[in-house]
Amino acid sequence: MRYIIIYSVETAITSIIVYGVMIFLGCIVLSYCEPFPLSQILFEASSAIGTVGLSTGITPQLSVAGKIVIIVLMYIGRIGVITFGTALVGRLKEKKRSKQRIEDLAA
Asked: The pTM is what?
């Protein structure tokens, strides 16, 4: 009988949720900025975060804000959501520690 380590399951579920949220947020911003149908926007966002290089042909017609969203999604997809999330959480924890140190010095 084989077992799957619970950490692996939690990591997979976290990745699915975070990828879904990133695609959802990217689609919301793109649909607000761009006049294209939602199906094309969803395809572009999914393709960007998956770094697969496919496009429906609307990328050159995107506004600057739309291109920035696509760039951010591509970057997150390239480094991975777990790495990206860990970097953000680590940065937030470090800021919290710095703030506590400053408060300790002031006291």
From this structure: 0.73
